[in-house]
Amino acid sequence: IVMLITRGFHWVYLVGEFIFVWYNEKAWSFLVIGAPFWLLFSFFNYAVCIKPMYTRLQKFMNMYTKHVSLSSDATVKMRRQSLENLNFAASQVFNTNHILNEEISSYFVKRRIERRQSMPSPALNNVSLARRARASSELLSRRFSGEW
Q1: For every residue of the chain, which 3-state class applies, written as one string?
Q2: What's the whole-model pTM score?
Q3: What is the reported pLDDT for 86?
């Protein structure tokens, strides 16, 4: 539902707001340049985000109605199969990790940082850092003591 609201209704509202403001201000260049981008991103929203999510949700709802409508005299094997299908459909609806899995997992990979990937040592000169810290400390103390 959040995706439908943000990718569908909220996006249409924002684009409408931009078109309304730019039309009233007679900013024709913004309208002409922005229109292809709005159309392209709107198509992306529909084709890549909204439609696949809706089909997965529809599949889950169909599996749910089949599971609920099982008769009380259904066999254990039928109930188990129905529950497995329902769990699979639910995992497809709620599993969004496959979209950005590689990108997100790259943040949690432990890497060995080599010397050439770190900052050069002159940039981390302790003496210059201490001088800067002392100067900023003195500056702040004068500012708050009223000597400013």
Answers
A1: CHHHHHHHHHHHHHHHHHHHHHHHCCCHHHHHHHHHHHHHHHHHHHHHHHHHHHHHHHHHHHHHHHHHCCCCCCCHHHHHHHHHHHHHHHHHHHCCHHHHHHHHHHHHCCCCCCHHHCCCHHHHCHHHHHHHHHHHHHHHHHHHHCCC
A2: 0.51
A3: 81
